[in-house]
Amino acid sequence: MKTTVAFIFGCRSVEHEVSIISAVQAMRSVNREKYDIVPIYVTKNGEMYTSEKMFEIESFRDMKALIADSEPVTLIKKGKDVVLKYLNNKMFSKKKDVVLNVAFPVVHGTNCEDGTLQGYLEFLGLPYVGCDVLSSAVGMDKAVFKYVMKAADLPVLDCICFYAREYAKNKNEIIEKAEKEIGYPMIVKPVNLGSSVGITKAADKNALIDAIDLAVSFSDKVLIEHAVSAIREINCSVVGDADSCEASVLEEPFMNDEILSYEDKYMSNSKSSGSKGMASLSRKIPADISEEKSTEIRELAKKVFKALGAAGVVRIDFIIDTDTNKVYVNEINTIPGSLSFYLWEATKLPYSELLDKLISLAFRRNRNRENLTFTIDTNILSGVSFGAKGAKGSKI
Amino acid sequence: MFLPIIAMAVAVVSGFLGLIRQYQMLQQNSYFASRYFGWLKGNAPLLPLILKGFIVILALLAALLGESTLKESLTLFVAVALYFGWRAAALNGESIKKLVYTARIKRMLAFSVVLLLVLGILGIVFKGIVSVVLLTVLVLLSLFPELLCFISLFALKPCEKMIANHYINDAKKILSSVYGIKVIGITGSFGKTSTKYILSRILSEKFNVLHTPESFNTPMGVVRTIRESLRADTEIFVCEMGAKNVGDIKEICDIVHPDFGLITSVGAQHLETFKSIDNVFKTKFELYDAVKAKSGTVFANGDNKIITENAAEDVILYSSSAGTNYFAENITSGRNGANFDLVLNGERVSVSTKLLGRHNILNIIGAAAVAYSLGVSPEDIAFAVSRLTPTEHRLELKGSLNGSLLIDDAYNANPEGCLEAVNVLNSFDGMKKVIITPGLVELGDKEFECNKALGEAAAKVCDKIIFVGKKRSEPLVLGAKEAGFNADNMYIAASFKEAMEIYTSFCDENTVVLLENDLPDNYLK
Known about the structure:
The complex is a heterodimer.
Chain A: E1 3-10, H1 16-29, E2 35-42, E3 48-50, H2 63-69, E4 71-78, E5 81-86, E6 98-100, E7 102-106, H3 116-124, H4 133-140, H5 142-151, E8 159-163, H6 164-169, H7 171-181, E9 186-190, E10 200-202, H8 205-216, E11 221-226, E12 231-240, E13 245-253, H9 262-267, H10 270-273, E14 283-284, H11 291-308, E15 312-321, E16 326-333, H12 341-346, H13 351-370
Chain B: H1 2-28, H2 33-43, H3 46-65, H4 67-94, H5 103-125, H6 128-143, H7 145-155, H8 157-177, E1 182-187, H9 192-203, E2 209-211, H10 219-229, E3 236-240, H11 248-256, E4 260-263, H12 271-274, H13 277-284, H14 286-293, E5 297-301, H15 305-310, E6 316-319, E7 326-334, E8 337-344, E9 347-353, H16 358-373, H17 378-386, E10 396-399, E11 405-409, H18 415-426, E12 432-437, H19 447-461, E13 464-468, H20 474-482, E14 490-493, H21 496-506, E15 511-516, H22 521-524
Parallel strand pairs in B: 1-3, 1-4, 2-3, 4-5, 5-6, 6-7, 11-15, 12-13, 12-15, 13-14
Antiparallel strand pairs in B: 7-8, 8-9, 10-11
Helix pairs in contact in B: 1-4, 1-5, 1-6, 1-7, 3-4, 3-6, 4-6, 5-6, 5-7, 8-10, 9-16, 9-17, 11-14, 18-19, 19-20
């Protein structure tokens, strides 16, 4: 009897394919002596499938064939357990429903990483790896994330934020406001997408209008912040929970364009060596910065982690304004590409041990919750009645 | 022909009904024939017994007259059985702890019904002496389901043994298949259940823990816990082990093979079965042998003399004060409960807990010692300890009138426990100390002495004393006076309501009151 871990990946998100790469990498690195793995691939329609073939990245090249070869499944609650149920199970079939002990979401982007999947697992009562609903949701919305950071006195770039319909109505006012409060060059971002999708830099008014047009096609809510001209981007991963966490060594990703685009992040090396996800992006580890700055950023990363109430493994992206040498928190990835394993390997934590630690953290959160009081053992309904006969009971 | 068939049906039904009550009592005596027999001896009502005996004699007489007479009068006899059966089944229905229809009870019921049916059918089919014997036995069994109860118990013993062995092997298989699981055995004459809860809570800071629920501390209780609740992700199984006879602990150890052992105490419990304290010690230390066989570690209570004098050198002792590697220091009590320094193998952490009393602190130390050796950090231990909650009305610390503090020990009715409660009261340094108690009851010959001792102890600790009940409190008053307590500070209240009125007149934020051996809720509302 091994602990059964359900890896959930794919999902209705623009980063669907990246998630597959991250998940396959993770599943192949788990200590199989200790854990049994159930891959649960969620299609772009939101259907769930499982198959032994999902351990091979090649299987995903021909998606139709893979689906035809996989079993449609769903998660249901059965007594105290959450089980993987085979939907097409015929009588006398050999496929037996599997009791799951813990879920491992390896999903990126909206409709999954943003607390959606976490809420589903929470509702089922299945312990899961990583951030909870609130921290996932806040981490996904770049604007709300900034507000939380500001409230915790952590350094972020000022921004303005508006909705697509607001913009359609008051286009000129918003652009004027941006020019006045932020000033060129600006960066325009949809608030809720990961992996730099839909993000553009604008040096003048025309570019700004184009940039906003692109951003609103991805999200109803857009934010604009000042583009730091002399910039270094530094990333740091954090592992743990609110009680104790550690920061990894730092990385500095190299940019082809002025900002790290989606192509940079996931496509740059894909033609030659096959998709390796974030792990293959050209970068420098550890980042070439002073010991002092490195310590500052790592401490800052832990503060961000705690302020958000994050858990599991996250990657926090920082910006250094090289003119002022000031560090800003840029954004958080609550489920980072490749789970940032390359940063932890550089921090002397092998991938299988990182995964082991993440699963332990999931159980730990679950136990902490079980140790709290959720139900009170008096039934208020016992004394209540509704109708005219209810003279004896109290009324609501 | 028709009549005997009805009679047989009635006999089966009445046997069945009568058995419900008998099985209820057998179940409550843990399926021990001897204990069940003891209950029978103490509880069999005389009149029905005579009546039933009379019916059996009538049946025998009818049998003497011949097979046909017996068959014809059979209905009459079993009708009487039906009446008693119905009465007995009603008794089960009225009791608080009814018969639980477990698989074993169902098997025994089925066996008994089949036995009655076979007797009846063969009795009708056969002729002559065979029929007479069979039908007489049928009458006898339906009238005395006690006999049926014994017969089914013994007849199914081998079968039950086989089933139990199957379950035991299944549990062993499950336990050995869980990757990396560690088993901790806890035993002791007292304190093992509370320690089990404390240990599980502390360990849950770091591990997925399963513990045997409530007092599931027999081999089958442990087996059931493993089969029903052990999960693939369980990392530690905390197993309480109870014993009434030599070999009981070994039996459980042979199932779970503990990696760690915790022995909370060796004392004079169950001496009627153990015969000697030495046997109690030997039995508790069967856990030591099992753990050592796996080269594990055993922890034991270093406050307990029998343990310190007899335990092997490699047993790791813990104690409520310095002298071992795991102990507590600087114990104080205050508004937030007990505070003390926990010293764990040289590491010191300050803890605070709502659990009061030396026995509780000792249990915490024992649990902390085991958790520490399993890698739970002192900080995590301190946090878990701060979250422990006391059992209701057992040295439970609460806010009370005028901002004063209440130690609710209303459920405590044993003399040693009461004196310990007074000690707890004494540990509230710098506060005005008050006791409200009606004294102890139902202690027979010892009652007067115990209450006098309680009065004395209270006199040494308290600033004010309120005894409840003029007549009941006479020995308490005597004890307090002999200890030289100023009579001006002693009140005798007629009721708890009055006691609380007296208390309200002088209590303030700096007052702590110990409420001993009665319920506070009735009048605090």
